[in-house]
Amino acid sequence: MSFPLAEMRVRCFAILTIGLVLVCQIAAGAESAEINLDYVKQRALERAQKPFHSPRADLPKVLRADNLDYDKYREISFRHDQALWTADDLPFRIEFFHPGYLYQESVHIYEFTLTHVQPIRFVQDFFDYGKLKIQNQIPVNTGYAGFRILYPLNKTNQLDELGAFLGASYFRLLGKDQRYGLSARGLALDSGEGDRPEEFPIFTDWWLGKPQKDDSELRLFAILDSVSCTGAYEFLIRPGETTVCDVEAILYLRETNKVHAVNPKRQPIATVGLAPLTSMFWFGKNSGRKFDDFRPEVHDSDGLLARMDGGETIWRPLDNPPILRHQIFHAPNIRGFGLLQRERSFAAYQDSFNLYQLVPSVWVEPRGNWGDGDLHLLSLSTSYEGLDNIVAFWDPKNKPAPLQPYHFAYTMFWEMGAADTERSENMAVSTRAGPDAYFQNGWQFVIDFTGPKLDGIPENSPPAAIANCGTNAVIMDNHIFRNPYLNSWRVILKMQPKPGNTAPVDLHCTLQRGTNVVSETWVYQWSPP
User: Would the CA dihedral through 494, 499, 505, 508 be positive or negative?
Assistant: First the structure.
């Protein structure tokens, strides 16, 4: 088992112990320990019994955003030949991100085997600082900002970026031939609550499991920390055509006096967002607000898919509303949810640089019964593609008492291709919307449904489009017919808001044959222009 060189390049010596060669550092020695979720859980509980300490306070001044701007930060790059596990020629490699600029919370990182653990010290020689002359101002105990994982994902003889954990509790993974798009988070606290700011927990400590030469999976552990809670997390990542990540976590809410010691105005947590996903939707087929841009569509995800405990599957196309919209679906024991990118045609985007047709869909599948709770969808207004303005998460109805463990687990699938259609076979493949010329202030929605059950329905015996809307509007017309150009059933809904209405309108549409539902449920929230 090899460890990185110490910053001062101290001489290391080898010790043969139970068949393992441990390269020891004076500054960072290996210790005997079995690293598992219980090990991390105990440390998370100990931390929860104390007030939160932000790593931001420990960042040296030279690395803070007022001294290290975007251009200066880009001067710093990791030396690829210094990647962790390079010397052992292992299938996984780790490269570290330098702290500074926006990434001001230093992360402590450890490496472990079945029997030993050792900290990975901050080493300046791992980085090329370009034209910057700041090395002598950076303390030797500075941590890293995060890390990226390399793996031969697309070709057996080439290392590709498999994923990155950087910034607060954000992380992204990739499957084969995918490009980065949406992100996941460890936890979202009070996201979308109108009477308080959102709290952003951070991953402060990481344990990286050293793989064997024939391993095809990577195991990580982490501590999550914030003003209001701590958490112990385990990640098991299995790269492939679809990259699969098993997540298991245990949360501890802090006692009120510990929270108020850091933030006296902090209210009790209202929303605990489990398995949160964050994405970008600027405009698409359904957008009422148009922007001056050569591309027909710009988004990393185009819809929220949810599978309810009773068997109903809901598809909610995303939108970029003029103001924040927060939609909540009651979803006890939810069976799965995700932000998907269903549009996979380059022609829909016409972007040769941001390959939106190749970004992954991410599906979250709970393990075990999550109990009663709600699925949340937040849509923020944005005027450009650089802002992630979409958030989705599940919030349990019953919050844990302070210092009482709250355990949950789920599996994430970072997928595209055939997997896009496996989540819901008879689906709404596109939504188009715009003003209606026949009804005053009216709006029409054109929805195309396709799938195995729908394809077998004769053209002269169409299914029924069962549509309804909220009490603040009226469905004026509802028409369905076969669309031969997309091999779909096309529904045209015409909706008219009631006079003076300025609130969003909720709409639903499902296809049925007799009493049998033959499609997912299309749901939408229309915002007045």
Answer: negative
CA dist 295 → 325, 360, 361, 400, 434 (Å): 25, 20, 21, 46, 18
Q: How many CB atoms lie within 10 A of CB 310?
A: 8
Query: What are the structure tokens assigned to 31, written together?
Result: 């210790």
Question: Helices marked H in 15-73 — which ranges?
Answer: 37-48, 70-73
CB 321 within 8 A of CB 527: yes
Q: Which amino acid belongs to residue 304?
A: L
Torsion angle (degrees, nearest 10) of CA 153, 362, 37, 143:
70
pLDDT score, position 177: 97
Phi, psi for residue 71 in degrees, rounded to 5: -65, -40
The stretches of 437-497 forming alpha helices (DSSP H) are: 452-455
pLDDT band at 498; cut points 50, 70, 90: very high
Instruction: Report helix, strand or coil for 346.
Output: helix
The DSSP call for residue 55 is: G
Joined together, the tokens standing for residue 448 give: 């195309």
For residue 288, what pLDDT is reported? 82
- Distance set, CA 331 to CA 198, 371, 373 (Å): 22, 9, 6
Q: How far apart are CA 270 and CA 191, in angstroms?
A: 9
Query: What 3-state DSSP class applies to 329?
Result: strand
Q: Would you say 524 and 431 are in contact if contact means Cβ atoms under 8 Å apart?
A: yes
Q: How far apart are CA 350 and CA 279, in angstroms?
A: 20
What is the number of other CB atoms lying within 10 angstroms of the CB of residue 500?
6
Token duo for residue 232 = 């112990």
Q: Residue 464: helix, strand or coil by DSSP? A: strand
The single residue listed with the structure tokens 């991953």 is 203
Find all residues with CB under 8 Å of 7, minimum gap 6, and list them: 27, 121, 122, 123, 124, 125, 140
28: left (phi over 0), alpha (psi -120 to 50) or beta: beta
Over residues 336-389, the pLDDT tens digits come to: 999 999 999 999 999 999 999 999 999 999 999 999 999 999 999 999 999 999
Which pLDDT value is given to residue 17? 30
Cα dihedral 189, 193, 198, 199 sign: negative
Single out the residue of 380, 374, 422 nearest to residue 399, CA to CA. Answer: 374
Q: Give the DSSP H/E element, type plus range, for residue 258.
A: helix 256-260
d(C-alpha 216, C-alpha 174), whole Å: 15
Task: Please determine, for residue 6, whether its predicted confidence score (pLDDT) is greater than 60.
Answer: no
Which pair of structure tokens corresponds to residue 243?
A: 């990259």
pLDDT for res 289: 82
Task: Write out the two tokens for 148.
Answer: 């990226």
Contact 170, 146 (CB under 8 A): no
The region of weakest confidence among 55-59, 127-131, 318-322, 424-428 is 55-59
Which residue type does 472 have? N
